[in-house]
Design a protein that fits this description.
Elements (H helix, E strand, L loop, with lengths): L1 H28 L6 E11 L9 E10 L6 E11 L3 E9 L3 E2 L2 E6 L16 E6 L7 E7 L2 E2 L3 H4 L6
Parallel strand pairs: 1-8
Antiparallel strand pairs: 1-4, 2-3, 2-5, 2-6, 6-7, 7-9
Amino acid sequence: MLINTKVLNIRRWLLPTSIALLLAVLAGCAEPEIQTMPVSLTGTITAPDGVTADKFYVRLYHAWALEGLLRHPVEEIESFETTGAAFSHDFDYPVDTGEGLLVYAWLDTDGDGVLCTPSVRDDIAGLIEVSEFPADAVTVELELTATCAGPDWFYPPVPQ
């Protein structure tokens, strides 16, 4: 009988302690909630004369992310597609993970869904830095000017 009482006492203690320990470990591993700001983005995308396509791919970036030795340009926030030159998109801007806003777009001229390949180099891209940011509503006019250029080709600008 004495053994059964000890086993029961251990079982009564073990379950609550295990649950508390599991919750403490999970709480310690959780990342803090990212603070965001709602932003409504509208704009137009202009392609060179004679270039047409059904779909534009748009990506939103922080101009700069992190601090100190880890500070770097062009950190992606999110992306979306638009079927016309005029677009509207609502998104949550992560306030604490970077600064500034870059809007990058490219036109899929060959319809393959890939920004340039070794054999086809016709896709056209452009980027604009939103100068009046942060703001809850942003309007941009983005001109596509370069073939096969990623966002890091445009930003940061080359010193003159």
